[in-house]
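Sorry to interrupt, but I need a hand with the structure work. I would like you to pick a protein and set down its sequence and fold. Please put the record directly below this note.
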Amino acid sequence: MELKSSHSSPVLTDPISINKSRLGIHPNLLSYAQSGGSLSSGKCMTIPRKKPGKLDDVRSNGWLDAMKSSSPPRKKLIKDFNIEVAADDIDISYCSWMIKYPSALKSFEKISKNAKNKKIAVFLDYDGTLSPIVDDPDRAFMPDTMRSAVRDVAKYFPTAIISGRSRDKVYELVGLTELYYAGSHGMDIMGPVSHTESDDHTNFTRSTDQQGKEVNLFQPAREFIPMIDEQVFKNLVENTKGIKGAIVENHKFCASVHYRNVEEKNWPTVAQCVHDILKDYPRLRLTHGRKVLEIRPVIDWNKGKAVEFLLESLGLSDRDDVLPIYIGDDKSDEDAFRVLREGSRGYGILVSSMPKESKAFYSLRDPSEVKKFLKALVRWKKFEEA
């Protein structure tokens, strides 16, 4: 089966059916029961929850420790021979860390050797990977040079962006029609139309893309939209409006509270506000990102599942001649790294300027190195085809 990729979104000439049981789409979308409603399918479970307390909850459950761990260590000054020198001690440990997670740029020859005679599929996070981390999430713009690099990659490889942002928002920021987009940590995927029985699944909707072309929307958490939009998001905005610097975002299938611009002494207040709302929604859970608290549906779905779904829908799953590459920087990307590490299916590449444990195989320091890596992929492919 051949994949056509041009200036429009890629379309399959011979789509295959999706193995829903292997992906865990139908029986394994687990959720928790809630008074006043239940999921149409899935198993119900019960979570023991502590009674709310003033700040004790967020300290005892480790929320504050997790929030602090997302803050990079400050540089410290040392004096040597009476000369004050700015030294970042993280650089020393970073060099040691790179022994376990070598640079994908310096390891490119090894990566390309393994990619020979294989079809590469590229999966990219957005924030911190294609764009820098900034104080205002709405200003996390991707440089034109990065946009050009991503566009070139999509000419040669099926390419998807899997972001924690809403799918519409990440498309607005990227603005490329050559790609597939998965928003809300993979809970909102726009993919090619496939005339199979999977189209009848309740989580599929026939729609049109920005060019008016027919596509399939896969949204395994669709029934949570009213809960997130009409209740949780509005409550988060109301309860945090008195906290200077707090930013609340509605990602359609999840809601985020950014505390990057909040004074650290007020972080416990942010955490308590989120905790007090979340305790009333046992079908929702908290995850931590880079100075952000995210509330998501409790279903068996994440970025790793999204990668599997896209590979399956593209006809690239369970093949020995496919090499998926996933590049991301945040905790939510670890699910995708884990999928690729299992069975050595592909390469996860962590974008980080400081050492941290990961399921990735390789590393890149920042978005500028991501751009260099993407350009290297294109040069290698052009050389292979010459």
